[in-house]
Every structure is written in C-alpha cells, then in structure tokens.
C-alpha cells in the first residue's frame, strides 16, 4: 500500500468515526502521524493471528513496522491493539496513555525490553508478548492486577520479578521456551491460575508451596531438569492434565492418588524404575505415557477403567503395551 492510499484510508476512517481499523497485511513500513486523528477507535489491528475453524492459530498477517508513532497515544478510547508479526524493537512511551486498553498483542516482534511505564496500563486483561527477545520484565509488573492472560513464551527470560505474585487475577500464564532456572516463591500467590505452561526451561525444582495453586487444571513442566517433585504438588486436586515428560524424575510422590481429576499424565523420557501402587486409584486417567522409562507395567494399571475400558480386550492391552513401551 502506498503512503497516499494509507492516508486516504485514515482520512475516510476519521470522517466516518470508525471504531475499528484493520491495516494488517498492507506491507506497511511506517505508520503516519495522522493515525492520531482516529480518536474514536476502540480496536486497531496492525498485525494479527490467523485462526482455523477450531480456533487454533495457524499463521499471522503482519506488516514491517519497526516503530509506532508517538501519536498512537492520542487513541485514548482504544480497548484493543494488535501489532502481531512486525519488526518493533521498542514501544513509544506514549503507549502508556492508552489507559483503556484491555487487550495488547505484541507477539512476533523484536522487543528486547518494555518501557517501565507499561505497568500504568492497569485495565489490561490480556497481554501477549510471545516470540520477542525479552530478557527481563519491569520490576513493577505486579501493578497489572487485572491481567487474566499473559503470554511470555519464546523469549529469553532467566528470572521473574518478585512482584509477579501480585497478578492474582491471572488464569492463563505461558512461560514456555525461556531460560528460567527457578521460579519466585511469590508465584504461589497466583491462586486463580488454571493453565501454567513452563515447557522447555531449566527448572531443577519448584517452590515449596507450589501446592497452593489449587485451581490449576493444566500444568506443563515438560523438558526441564526436575529430579523430584515437592510433596505439595498432590494438593493440586483440580489438575486434569500434568505433563512431566523429558525430566530426570526417578520417583513420584506416593500421594499422587490425591490428584483424583487427572485425565492425562505424561511421564515420557524420565528415569522412573517404579510407580507407586496408588496410581491404580486415578480412575479418571485416559492417557498415560510411560515410554522411555526403565519401568515395568504395574498391574495396578489394569484397574484404570477410563484408560483400559475393557481390561479383558486383548487389543486394548496390546495397545497399552505399545504406548507404555515396557522396558522391564
């Protein structure tokens, strides 16, 4: 799109008092100052995700913006700003004037830091910073107390601020593909978390009070360095999916039976030589992956009705053998 065409679109949107404006996929390298005229905008899209019919992300439609003009701060009615799949290396300080923002998507850019002032966007409910180059977060990120969804995946984070624990309304937290070697103890204050993804970090332990996250339904700890689990993990009685694959676990807590709502338990590629007999009491289990462990199939598994609905059915049992890959 030429500069002239872009200015014409902006002028038309200003005349019409547009509340939504989608400029994704226009090959933009710059956004003119005239964007500040669209003071009625509630939703501005400069790059977005593509979804399939099931709601899964299948691609992006972006631009080539490396900066946003200071005039972006004039759009003080904005509730949603999407700048997915661009080349942003920084954010203008004026972005903090967008105090009505509830949704901010900045995925797939080249951000290495965030302005400290971003914590003033206290109405944010959904913040997507995935696939950037962030190595740290503002120390006062805990001021974003209305956040319900935070995606920090595929960055370069090695630690989280202690204020992280103040994000008590978070329901979904994505931290996969970072460089976290530990979690702040304050993370256990995120008592409304339902989904926590820590795949592919460098965690060797979990906070002692991890069991306080009692609303967790999905927990992904795959591809870390865990050699043991805190006993308190069995307090996560709402867990439906627990992924512990590709760690260094040699045993599981005997009280794992308390995770009565587990439907999926992935233990692939650990060092388990035995399983607690109590595993046979997890009656909701539908999927159990024990491959690449030096563990025999425990007889208690045959009592898991959801996993093996017809214990006498030879095909069911053989299928389980293949999935479990008995190495005894």
UniProtKB/TrEMBL annotation:
Keyword DNA-binding among UniProt keywords: no
InterPro entries per UniProt: Leu-rich_rpt, Leu-rich_rpt_4, Leu-rich_rpt_typical-subtyp, LRR_dom_sf, LRR_domain-containing
Pfam families on file: LRR_1, LRR_4, LRR_8
Keyword hit for Repeat: yes
Gene Ontology CC terms, in alphabetical order: cytoplasm; peptidoglycan-based cell wall
Keywords: Leucine-rich repeat, Repeat
Name this protein carries in UniProt: Leucine-rich repeat protein
UniProt source species: Hassallia byssoidea VB512170
Organism taxonomic ancestry: Bacteria, Bacillati, Cyanobacteriota, Cyanophyceae, Nostocales
